[in-house]
Amino acid sequence: MQLVLASNNRGKLAELQQMLAPLGVQLIAQGELGVGEAPEPFHTFVENALSKARFAAAHTGLPALADDAGLCVQAFGGQPGVQTAHYATRFGYPQGDAHNVRALLEQMQGVQDRRATMVSTLVAVRSPEDPEPLIAVGRVHGEIAPAPRGEGGFGFDPVLLLPELGRTFAELPAHEKNALSHRGRAARQMEALIREHWL
């Protein structure tokens, strides 16, 4: 089965392709099929993921999988949330992972409560009008490290510290990160949902 991934994020594509490999699905980034980015006007992960999945399905004719993920910082009332990818632009920096990390660490200076949650919401649709989308949510609770650590991963991985391990996501080998991560948790739920409802 072919599934279009409603994203052009290479990190997400690589992780999800590996995580969903047991299903035997071929995951294709929407950009490879000439599909641009969908509008994401909503304030929740699930609404944006559904919007992206329907958009990709409508433009490709294939079943689609979308991942809307982000960092929710306790001290900031859950922000940046759905605006995670664009976080740095709020503070005058260009968009990009390194700038996002820098902006976050600057905003966290002097903040005692460093709790944060990484959230991944996966939505899959068989068609743009699918009345019963499959929805899976994975969460990982951690803390914002005082400085970036590690070379792996992407996004906020260098500063999301897992207290029980004493390491950030960026310090973990890929297989260990995928086993523990918000996206890994959501992908395992999605795998089970696809098996139950689509295969």
TrEMBL record:
Gene3D superfamilies: 3.90.950.10
Protein known as: dITP/XTP pyrophosphatase
UniProt-listed GO biological process terms: nucleotide metabolic process; purine nucleoside triphosphate catabolic process
Family recorded in the similarity comment: Belongs to the HAM1 NTPase family.
Catalytic activity: XTP + H2O = XMP + diphosphate + H(+); ITP + H2O = IMP + diphosphate + H(+); dITP + H2O = dIMP + diphosphate + H(+)
Single GO MF annotation: XTP diphosphatase activity
The protein's required cofactors: Mg(2+)
One GO term describing the cellular component: cytosol
Active site annotation, chain numbering: 68
EC code(s) of this entry: 3.6.1.66
Xref: CDD domains: HAM1
Record InterPro entries: dITP/XTP_pyrophosphatase, ITPase-like_fam, RdgB/HAM1
The UniProt record lists the keyword Nucleotide-binding: yes
PANTHER family: INOSINE TRIPHOSPHATE PYROPHOSPHATASE (PTHR11067:SF9), INOSINE TRIPHOSPHATE PYROPHOSPHATASE/HAM1 PROTEIN (PTHR11067)
Domain of life: Bacteria
Annotated binding of Mg(2+), by residue: 68
Top EC group: hydrolase
Cofactor: binding details: Binds 1 Mg(2+) ion per subunit.
Residues noted as binding substrate in the record, renumbered to the chain: 7-12, 69, 154-157, 177, 182-183
Function according to Swiss-Prot or TrEMBL: Pyrophosphatase that catalyzes the hydrolysis of nucleoside triphosphates to their monophosphate derivatives, with a high preference for the non-canonical purine nucleotides XTP (xanthosine triphosphate), dITP (deoxyinosine triphosphate) and ITP. Seems to function as a house-cleaning enzyme that removes non-canonical purine nucleotides from the nucleotide pool, thus preventing their incorporation into DNA/RNA and avoiding chromosomal lesions.
Keywords (A to Z) from UniProt: Hydrolase, Magnesium, Metal-binding, Nucleotide metabolism, Nucleotide-binding
HAMAP family given in the database record: Non_canon_purine_NTPase
The protein's assembly and partners: Homodimer.
